[in-house]
Queue: 2 jobs
Job 1
Amino acid sequence: MLGQLKLRLAPPLYRMLSGSVRLAGHGTARRPGGRPVIFACLHRDMIPAIFHVRGAHPTLLVSRSPDGDILIRTLERDGYGFVRGSTGKQGGRAFRDLLLALEGGASLGLAVDGPRGPFGVVRDGVLQLSRRTGTPIVPLAVRCGRHLSLRNWDRTVLPLPFTCLDVVERDPVVVPPDASDAEVADIARRLAATLLDAGAGS
């Protein structure tokens, strides 16, 4: 019952919020040279990041949970693509579908420590997508004005109406195709540090 209520309420609440929040700076995601990129954020910052990237119409990785159903219902009118599942295993269907989206010219939007954490630890999928395709990862460092922090594993940031969102695109990161496991692990740590730096949920 609660799930059905959330499914009904989320889209109109999103419309109300999207019409009132303000985006600082350039205010919309860029695609350098018109090429696909992988927009990367923390799961905590997913809602502010979605407002930032919507102009690029990326394909989003969405979990198969009821919350994933709510996210798709909420965003389906805004031109996003969706892939359901997790990139936890390279051979998984979600990973293959994300590769196909990149090869078809779509950008991606990934919460890189989701869907279940641990918080701030970059999972392997985003790194392997860049490694396989040469697509740059664009870290999104988020600062949110007035907001609520939900009481879940990542303290999800929920912007309040009429607040200002400052989403900064940090320097792109590309994982070389011949990178060693140690080099990939180092890139993951540096990416995590970049995403944690803005401290949107603090």
Note: DSSP finds six helices and nine strands in the chain.
Job 2
Amino acid sequence: MSRRDQIRMSDDAVAEFLEENSTMTLATIGADGRPHLTAMWYGMAGGHVVFWSYRPAQKIVNLRRDPRLSVLIEAGDTYSDLRGVSIAGTGTILEGPDEVLAIGQLLLERQEPGFAAAASAAAATAPKRVAVRIDAERVTSWDHRKLGGGY
């Protein structure tokens, strides 16, 4: 078995990893073709990674022009405990007020469980935002803990 096959996460492990983390690095494509990177809070909805952002944000401008994106979610401090998921796909911009509000509330509650004002905080900012659903085309994963400390 190749080392790549050895460290690949199962679909269930990928889903669990995505649920237990909340920050990703998002890459969109700028007008000049360079990657535009930003850290984003994300959540899971219907099996998709979702996030929200202000309508005029550069990442949204980029996605309107070219919906291709990549994201990276990673964990671990040493080589032997590195884990991660990389997703390449497209971003579908969601502008329906109910969808945007629901995703905003999901993200706020995920960042601060039990946040009593999550609904009102999301409602206050939702009219200025859009949400994005990531439609994955390729998912790559790794879990170096499977190597048992070997390299």
Note: The chain is about 30% helix and 40% strand.
